[in-house]
Design brief:
single chain; 16 helices; 313 residues; mainly alpha
């Protein structure tokens, strides 16, 4: 299974990391606006979600990454394979994954649609790209002894694994899967089903995170190679359909999700106001991230074309 991004092209995504941090500001404003001072203390001081299997998966991913990084840097040097900045990207994504799935934000999402939207956007446009930038597959491989690494490498390069992986991470496939997951799970019947059943809710989050990882993997592979146009098309079309969905949620005359009709009133919001805040989260801060990253990729594409244009002239 491929585990590398083109190392010599990784500096371009420094503005990308800055763009992702812009997502937090509008979400904080939404939080300050939405939660009324009279809201029940049970929600404001909601317990952390300590699901054993969630904690085990997140903990194992962090421990394996740390072990792999230490072994890799001890063997090849700090700047070989995975740079400190890439490792920092993974750590940031790992901490934000805890925020999304373990912190009181998870409990708040059961009562407020806009909080649920913040959680989903954190998973899809912050955690997923930071994980991809951190190159966890390479680090996890180095966490195992040499003999195990060799066996894993040989196994993952067999057609039975490699062909499906290449298919899933192809730009068209990754884009389609991510778009389908995002749009279908916002159909009211499916969204309410996730709120009513914890297993369905878990599957919803897995769909968002897994397809987002595929999407950002394919996009960053294209952007750091010679296919910036493919990356731009993938990014801008995602911006369009997520923006349309956010606008529909914001401008809809009625609330779409009956499951929130009884929970939002404790926060001084009507169901429609709660939905409008959630739509704005998807429409503006998330859309801004797509636009800024598109500007960075577009600038790289234009810079790469300058020598060719000058030679032609």
């Amino acid at each position: 299974m491929p585990t590398t991004l083109a190392g010599r092209h990784t500096r371009w995504w420094l503005p990308f990391l800055i763009a992702l941090t812009l997502f937090a500001g509008p979400c904080d404003l939404a939080l300050a606006h939405a939660i009324d001072s009279d809201a029940p203390a049970a929600y404001l001081s909601a317990a952390w979600s300590l699901e054993p299997w969630v904690l085990a998966c997140i903990g194992a991913s962090g421990v394996l990454y740390a072990l792999g990084i230490v072994r890799l840097w001890r063997h090849a040097g700090v700047r070989r394979g995975i740079t400190p900045l890439q490792a920092a990207a993974f750590v940031a994504g790992w901490l934000l994954l805890l925020l999304a799935l373990v912190s009181p934000l998870d409990s708040l999402g059961a009562a407020l649609f806009w909080a649920h939207m913040v959680q989903h956007e954190l998973l899809m446009i912050v955690v997923a790209p930071l994980f991809v930038l951190g190159r966890p597959l390479a680090a996890w491989a180095w966490a195992f002894p040499l003999r195990w690494r060799q066996r894993i490498g040989r196994a993952l390069h067999r057609p039975v694994w490699r062909v499906p992986w290449l298919l899933l991470t192809a730009p068209g496939t990754a884009w389609t899967l991510h778009a389908a997951a995002l749009c279908l799970w916002h159909v009211p019947a499916f969204f309410d089903a996730a709120l009513a059943n914890e297993a369905v809710h878990t599957f919803q989050h897995l769909c968002f995170l897994f397809t987002a990882l595929l999407f950002w993997w394919s996009l960053l592979q294209a952007a750091t190679g010679s296919r910036q146009v493919v990356a731009l098309v993938s990014l801008m079309t995602t911006f369009v359909y997520t923006g349309v969905l956010g606008a529909l949620l914001t401008l809809a005359p009625t609330a779409w999700y009956p499951a929130y009709h009884t929970t939002v009133q404790a926060f001084g919001l009507s169901p429609l106001e709660d939905q409008q805040l959630g739509g704005l989260v998807m429409w503006i801060p998330a859309g801004l991230v797509y636009v800024l990253i598109g500007v960075v990729i577009g600038a790289r594409w234009m810079d790469a074309g300058k020598p060719r244009i000058m030679r032609t002239a």
